[in-house]
Amino acid sequence: MKSSQKLVIELKRLNQKLDKIDNQSRFMIYSGSPAKFAFLNFISGMFHSLGSLFATAIIASIFVYFFSQINLVPIINGWINSILSQSQYSNILPPIPTFSP
Q1: String of b and e for 6-33 (b: at least 16 CB within 10 Å)?
Q2: pTM, to two decimals
Q3: Which residue has the higher pLDDT, 95 or 62?
Q4: Hey, what's the torsion of the CAs at 51, 55, 58, 61, to 10 degrees?
């Protein structure tokens, strides 16, 4: 066997051992101190929520700013008038019964 092949085989074994150690160390962190694990998860969840909140606030403020610059009332009013002019009220509302004494 060439020395380069031996080196490749040894590197593969070393990588496998490092992967095994990495997986074991994660488990040791989780099971080593449950209180520390819970605290770290709580803090990460809190920062994730705050980041989502700030991103939503920024995006919402951008939408509000752009929509406040557009006057949509005439557009919506024209659209509603065109719909109402095409429809017949007798098809939409039932006739009102009349009672005679």
Answers
A1: eeeeeeeeeeeeeeeeeeeeeeeeeeee
A2: 0.44
A3: 62
A4: -120
